[in-house]
């Protein structure tokens, strides 16, 4: 999605990286990307690929937040990169009562950036509805069943992947790099409660959902039993109301028209 959004803006030179075993190279070539094969275990290959790069936008998976991004950060600093976007798109996870290993990894990445002196920009956009409205997180739409923790009346922030990519690319086109350095930016495609999601789905599909309400204590117990239960950490964030981060910085891209919730239900 990010590459597609960048392709629509002529002022960027696009560079994409892949590990040796990565497959879909031709698709990215067709988007105008200059391809480089790198190894996260070989800082030299990363530094070479970063020569002349001003902005590095990381989109690594959450399974490699530290193992991939720490080498990226060190190489980016060595190569003279002026701005780094860490792969930490989502909620803020401030004052998290049950910090999971993934949340601790996110904080490790921030600490390493500060220690190396690499300028960074965080974009907090809430959850990605395309990936979060799934059975593991309570939304089993194919079976017409939804599980709700708490009363379902707390709002959470949501932004689609494409809307996030569109916002980032246009902000990079508009703002000088020095105005983006060491910032935590908040954007919001839409904010909605779980009960509202249920209502909108039922209206769109002209069908009734079977809804089960469960106590918040269930999530606390899950995290006490398994701190790696990141699904429980996410559900706790959304069910408590901490998942609503607001769109304080939406106005940095005044023409932004984020996807609606109805478009993903």
UniProtKB/TrEMBL annotation:
InterPro entries attached to this UniProt entry: NAD(P)-bd_dom_sf (IPR036291), NmrA-like (IPR008030), NmrA/Isoflavone_reductase-like (IPR051609)
Keyword Nucleotide-binding listed: no
Keywords: NADP, Oxidoreductase
Domain NmrA-like: 24-221
A GO molecular function held by the record: oxidoreductase activity
Pfam assignment, any one: NmrA
The protein's name: NmrA-like domain-containing protein
Domain of life according to the entry: Eukaryota
Claim: Transmembrane helix is one of the keywords in the record: no
């Amino acid at each position: 999605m990010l590459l597609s959004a960048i392709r629509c803006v002529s002022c960027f030179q696009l560079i994409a990286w892949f590990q040796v075993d990565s497959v879909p190279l031709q698709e990215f070539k067709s988007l105008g990307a200059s391809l480089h094969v790198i190894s996260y275990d070989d800082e030299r290959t990363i530094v070479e690929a970063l020569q002349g790069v001003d902005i590095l936008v990381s989109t690594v998976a959450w399974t490699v937040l530290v193992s991939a991004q720490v080498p990226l950060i060190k190489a980016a600093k060595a190569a003279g990169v002026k701005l780094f976007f860490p792969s930490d798109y989502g909620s803020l996870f401030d004052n998290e009562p049950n910090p999971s290993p993934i949340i601790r990894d996110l904080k490790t990445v921030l600490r390493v950036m500060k220690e190396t002196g690499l300028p960074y920009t965080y974009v907090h956009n809430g959850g990605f509805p395309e990936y979060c409205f799934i059975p593991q997180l309570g939304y089993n739409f194919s079976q017409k069943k939804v599980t709700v923790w708490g009363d379902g009346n707390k709002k959470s922030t949501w932004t689609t992947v494409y809307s996030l990519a569109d916002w980032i690319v246009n902000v990079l086109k508009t703002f000088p790099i020095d105005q983006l350095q060491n910032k935590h930016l908040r954007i919001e495609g839409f904010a909605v409660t779980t009960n509202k999601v249920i209502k909108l789905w039922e209206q769109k599909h002209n069908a009734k959902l079977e809804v089960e309400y469960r106590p918040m204590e269930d999530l606390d117990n899950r995290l006490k039993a398994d701190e790696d239960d990141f699904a429980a950490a996410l559900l706790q964030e959304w069910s408590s109301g901490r998942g609503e981060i607001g769109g304080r910085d939406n106005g940095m891209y005044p023409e932004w028209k984020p996807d609606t919730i109805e478009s993903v239900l």
